[in-house]
Protein 1
Amino acid sequence: MIKGDTILGQSIKSDTIKRYVSAAAELFTDRWGNMADPYECKTLRRNYPKILISALARYEKVPNRREIITHDMFEHIAKQADRAGPDSLVASFKDWLSWSRYGGPRQGEWCQEKSKTKYKEVEGIAGEAQAFRLDDLAFYDHNSRRIDPRDTLVCNVAYATVRWRYQKNKDNGEIIKYYADSRGNRWCPVYALLSIAQRAIRMNIPSNEPIAKYNQGTKQYFITAKNVATILQEAAYETMGITDPKVLQKWTSHSLRVTAANELHRMGFSDAYIKHRLRWRSDAFMKYLRHTIHVARKHTEALSLTNKNLQLEKSNLDRVNERIDGIQLHRCRDENDILWRQYFYAKDSTVV
């Protein structure tokens, strides 16, 4: 039953299986008198039904973990955006994707869940958009003077601010700064935000509407979670050759937030910084972290041993110093191996 070997071939939840087993145990005790319940009995050395059902219950609590967006996926989407129109779906999403590496937005904070023609409102406030509007973005020069995004170049912008209109943590209206990357515009958060603002102006999006929109023919639509999942899964397929639908489903709109957390973590930022910058109230971000190739490489580099790591140090004992000097005179290619062997296995216990 746990493996899905049921009449309809469908998996059954642990609570349902537990009830089946308990009913069978009750029938067993009714038939055979005062024998102990084989499921609830605490004197059994190995209560296998309970072990299996408990394991299934723990498995059911494991979240459906979303995957990070790899560098190759970013580049693939960027190339598609370069070939598409400036107000197309992929071009619009590319800008949001670029900024998401810094902002780590939740789905409801920037795009729509299902409807591409209606936007979600803040609960209890009619007409108030839950996702970002144009007036939530602001741009400033190097003297902290505000710039009109209509007629400026990114080179004139030092930083931008985003007002988080709606947040899961209820800290609505929080304003966060994002600094321009002087090394280039391709993945610069300020360049992405300026492009988003200028697209909203170009498309004449109403001031009360969310700005995560795109043109398709002569009509405008909101970006939806399904749009995001489709683009990311196609990128995963093209860059990594993944064909298993169950694996591809791990890339969704939530991958943007997962990626932002992992980017900061692999760069060595503290837990407090990640929580503050990506707007967490608790340590819940820890479940977002993944064993990425970057983390593996950093782990290896940190533990890489060199001759200096294994160099023997002299002490205040002449016997030890003489032995170390003698070893260093007869080094060979694997010098550290010899040093350690002679140092630890010397016959004279005073040396060790």
Note: The longest helix spans residues 14-31.
Protein 2
Amino acid sequence: MKSVAGIFTSREEAGRAAFELERGGIARDRITVLSPGASPQEIASVPTDEGEQPGTGAAIGAVVGGAVGAAGGLPIGAALLSLVVPGIGPVIASGIIGAALLGAGGAAIGSTLERSLSEGLPKDELFVYEDALRRGRSVVIALVDDDADEAARGVFEAMNAETIDAAREQWWIGLRDAEASQYAPTEEVAFRRGFEAALHRDARGLPIDEAMPELRRRYPDLIGGPAFRRGYERGQVYYLTMTGEMRERLRKSA
């Protein structure tokens, strides 16, 4: 099972894409829509647990009915959860994939189902989705078998969704000037891979030595280089800066 995703400029467009995916034969519980959610004023008074795993959203809303989905441009009948995600703020997640990816888990989706989905969850793309949400975009994610891969991509292409690869490149272009002093031109690839590795959901907040076993598995050809290590350290600073700024903004608006 693999993930296929597209980024849309509005929640309504994302909802239509989710409908087309389901109409094409992809099960509803394999489709999710992530959209910017409630206003900061509505969630400012909701406490977040400082001991949470970095990147975990605190659930602030119960599962709600399909009428909300229909009114908000989300799939009719989808389970919606309102989450506070560090570095982003309020997010509405429809579908169990979104709950698992953003860390709601638990009673919201059930531990057995979460384990069954974990292999296909696009954890290494999470930072791209987060950047899209910060820009007010909505993200549609489908977990599909190999034989449904092209059909899902066809839906996104037909609806002019921004691809994850294109969004990832734009994200890095936005950071390149600020980070250029940290690496030589020939080191950019290794530095960037290290930077992105630090934003993987399972690495967030971990010093590189603690993350080393998993990094060695995923980046065996780069892990020994100084550029990769510098990139990882800068990625951790980026993540902590983003989440710290959001927490401070919510605190001041409380």
Note: The first strand starts at residue 2 and ends at 8.
Protein 3
Amino acid sequence: MTRPHRTLADDLRDAIAPRTVALVAGVLLLQLGFILSYVGAFHAPKPHRVPIAVVPTQPPTIVGLLNALPGNPLRAHVAPDEAAARKEIADGSASAALILGQKQRLLVASGGGTSVVTAVEQVIKAVEALPPNREGPSLRNVGVEDVLPLQPGDGRGLTGFYLVIGWIVGGYLMAALLGVAKGARPATLRRAMIRLGSVVPYAIVSGLGGALIVDQLLGALTGHWFALWWLGALTVFGAAAVTMAFEILFGVLGIGITVLVFVVLGNPSAGGAYQTSLLPPFWRAISGALPNGAATDTVRRIVYFGGHGIGMHLLVLALYAGVGAAVTIAAAAALRRRHSAPLPGQAG
């Protein structure tokens, strides 16, 4: 019998299935989204309403001048004295303080982010270059004092950001590998709960490992390893639980959605290389709502600001962990009921 003639289109269909084409298209979109997100966030950082306290020696006309600058780079307010201004910096409610008087000084906190410090210094230098203001004090020869410097091993303040990236990558890779090895959708509800439960010891160990590496091993962030340990455990568990939820809901496509959330959107908006007040509006808006930004700022506040202002960040991380686990269990239970339901016409 003569074999039918096969065309190139037939061979292409056999070699590359439509599902594979769809997956490759999805990867291409993720790749382009990665480029758009990172370049969009980082190509032109500009300060936006950076909080700065001003301690004036006379009616604070300088506050109005700073708040009227084009582009609104600063959000200036009056502090009663230098001690109050320093307290605002110490608890993270102000990024800098301008002390007016015979010796004008700019108090900054590199522990809150070196990019913010650089941006504020540049804005103040630009104001110094303005013509003298007859209605109030002018800025001239402003000295800079770093009142909350980086720890010696925390080069450019990026350690916390990379620590969080490691935790999140570990969490979603662990969940993704379980899905690849045993199927994205567990066969039974019990297996889903076992898979979810296996994340707990992994999260605890990886949280501890990351904390010990940046503290005892490298001396990058010292003195807070216990708090960082449990922050890491919560972050890792949340990343893994969300990944499992996406896998059960969307199958293998769930891994791509996880990459979109944690890598494409989460990393550039986390406030690592550039703090959130320097990012464009979209990335600035989503920063605190994603685990990357919430955990990165929590590390920074634990190490440099005495833990002030971490409550909302911890709530965000807990919501990812709790909702991810709940969706995983609920979706697995729904799949089980669907598979065990009798076929039409079958006896009940």
Note: The mean pLDDT is 89.
Protein 4
Amino acid sequence: MAWRADQAWFDRHFLPVFFVSWRLYRLGETGARGVVALAGLAVIFWAGPALGRWTRRTTPGAMAVDLARMVLALLLAAGLCEAGLRLAFPRATEAPQPGVEPLRQADPRLGWTFVPARTAHQAVHGGIVDYAFDDNGLRVAELDRPVDFAKPSILFAGESIAAGAGLDWDRTFAAETAVALGLQPANLAVFAYSDDQTYLKLTGVLPRFERPRAVVILTSPGLMFRDLEVERPHLGPQLHWRPAEHGPRLLALLRLFVPYHSTAAIAAMQAKVRAELTEEVRQVRARQAEPLILVPRFGPEDPREAALRRTVLAGLPVLQVQLDPAWRQPRDPHPDARGARAIADALALRLKAPLSPARDARAPWPPN
């Protein structure tokens, strides 16, 4: 098994992770192969001979009794572990945890959303980051400045990177991009969302905006592992909504530490995410707004990310932004203020031409 599980095998069955560098990921894969190889050697040179000695000195009846005891002990241990895990971790891996700011609440269709109409304070890196959410649960600069659905707006959809985790409002790339373009920012992003949840959020809220000018949809090959998780609301074939599916917690724990997926499952996920993004782009253009799929990454693109990007995003309006790996928050994988500014500058440069006054006769430019 260790011999056959080479780098190509890992690339086929394990997805990249945005918050883990390719070098570290490969180091982990090499370590896993080493552990499997050592286990095989232990079976050959220790467990196998020990089992042989045990069978030679044990009668069939005693052997059956011993095996029954072992099986019973394993079943009891598994049952206790399952019960303990259900008490300690009743939710999906990335579902909101009680008391963790900014607070999120359960939502039957989306899985979770930010608690609306409140200000949150989060201790981050020795300081305090403030979050404000309007009556619709959208992050805003201040509670008394809610998103106005009638104003010319630029929408941002995605997960914690797009929401500006760890950054005050005016240092998020959503706020900085909106200022550069003279538009009202509408931040729809929610922590830990998958592409499925982003699709549901965006397509549900977009019709409420009277004058959307642009929509930025954040995705990344390193975040698509979430689209294979069924313990959150997700989409099936033809983008039909499906509720969260909660199975044994021991299996969920195993999938967390060994995120193996068949090639068929990964191919189906790629087709689904491509269909979601294609439909999002279609709906945005139907509103005469400019769609743009934002793909940030730290450092050079690794081969697995490149393969996923070509499969999922080919032919779609994409902006890739490469960030310096040093532009992470202290002890946190999210972009810091320098990373957010780099993303904002790239977005503003890309969108200024499509959003020029000559392209829009619906509203004065800049908007009042």
Note: Confidence is low (pLDDT under 50) at residues 358-368.
